[in-house]
Amino acid sequence: MKKILLILAILMPLVSFSQTKKGASHKKKATTTAVKTEAKPQKVTPSFTMPLFIFDSEGGLSTEGGKEFMVYELDGWSQKELYDKVILGISQLFTYPDKVMTKVENELITVNGYESNAFKWGKGYYTSYYYTVKFLFKEGKIRVEPSIRGYEGNNGMANVAMWMRTQGNYNEVKPKFEESINALIYSFLLKSFDTSNDDW
Q1: What DSSP state is assigned to residue 192?
Q2: What is the pTM of this model?
Q3: Labelling 57: which of 12, 143, 168, 172 has CA 20 to 30 A away?
Q4: Between these two residues, 196 and 110, which has the higher pLDDT value?
Q5: DSSP assignment, residue 118?
């Protein structure tokens, strides 16, 4: 009798374990559901073209179509990303960037600068000028608006419109002015999206 009770005591846990394991195998396996997410637009490193601003009859700068601004489209870039890029790029071009830049966060950057000895004309005459370049931002867009506030030649400061009306060297100096301000804007844009020094 004792032997029978001993055998039953040994077999009971095995029977219980077998039933538990068998019952567990009938449970349904959990299923996973894939969550679909919209793919974000791919960011492409911008390839800028040289701006082509020219002087109008009043000494202002505009495009050949008569607009006082140009718009660059940059697909996949958010308004904030573009703003941050231009802030960083321009900051690297000036010793004291806070002295030349004013900002409206994520919307507008205004650069008020002085281009010393920007170009040479005639018999060794050098011209420096004061300029303003505004950068405005939207999703995937940068708008550029330049102006020249005045220039400084060998005879001191002068207004561009006055120079255009009175100086006989207009045809010689005009394209140099235009080339200089366009190259300046171009350098701001290229520096802002330059990735050559990203690895450090």
Answers
A1: H
A2: 0.75
A3: 143
A4: 110
A5: E
Q: Residues 68, 145: contact at Cβ < 8 Å?
A: yes
State both tokens at 133: 């370049």
Q: Which of 198, 200, 195, 196 is nearest to 45 (CA)?
A: 195
Position 56 confidence tier, pLDDT thresholds 50, 70, 90: confident
CATH of 68-189, one of 3.30.700.20, 3.40.50.150, 3.30.530.80, 2.10.10.20: 3.30.530.80
Mean pLDDT, rounded, of the chain:
81
* Cα angle for residues 98, 100, 101 (degrees, 5° grid): 65
- Residue 196 to residue 200: CA distance in whole angstroms: 10
What's the CA gap between 164 and 169, in Å, rounded? 9
